[in-house]
């Protein structure tokens, strides 16, 4: 089987780092570790948005910008709740 994506390039490292961050976020979510799960998820989504940008993949960018917006909203709500703003 031939690989379609190159290895050991900038986007390759970002792709794998972002994937690991999202897996950590999933583990944190399943163990109710809040808001760390949002932070790890946000970082993973930002990473995958960058990959989408590198690949000129609008669907990947759109999906991840929506996820970034949702995670950012969750973090803002958390800060408002904790600091009683």
**Rg over CA atoms:** 15 Å
The count of β-strands is 0
* Backbone structural class: mainly alpha
Please provide the ordered H/E string of secondary-structure elements.
HHH
What count of helical segments does DSSP give? 3
Largest beta-sheet characterization = none
Q: Specify the helix fraction band.
A: over 70%
**In percent, how much strand structure appears in the residues?**
under 5%
What is the approximate shape?
elongated
Describe this structure as you would to a colleague.
- By secondary structure, the protein is an all-alpha fold.
- Helices cover 79% and strands 0% of the residues.
- It has helices at residues 10-30, 36-55, 58-83.
- The chain is elongated.
Descriptors:
single chain; 85 residues; mainly alpha; 3 helices; 79% helix
Topology:
Layout: H1 10-30, H2 36-55, H3 58-83
Could you give a short description of this structure?
By secondary structure, the chain is mainly α. The protein has 3 helices and no strands.
């Amino acid at each position: 089987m031939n690989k379609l994506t190159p290895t050991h390039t900038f986007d390759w490292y970002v792709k794998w780092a972002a994937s690991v961050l999202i897996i950590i976020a999933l583990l944190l979510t399943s163990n109710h570790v809040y808001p760390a799960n949002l932070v790890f998820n946000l970082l993973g989504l930002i990473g995958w948005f960058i990959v989408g940008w590198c690949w000129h993949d609008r669907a990947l960018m759109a999906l991840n910008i929506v996820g970034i917006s949702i995670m950012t909203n969750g973090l803002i709500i958390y800060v408002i709740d904790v600091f009683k703003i």
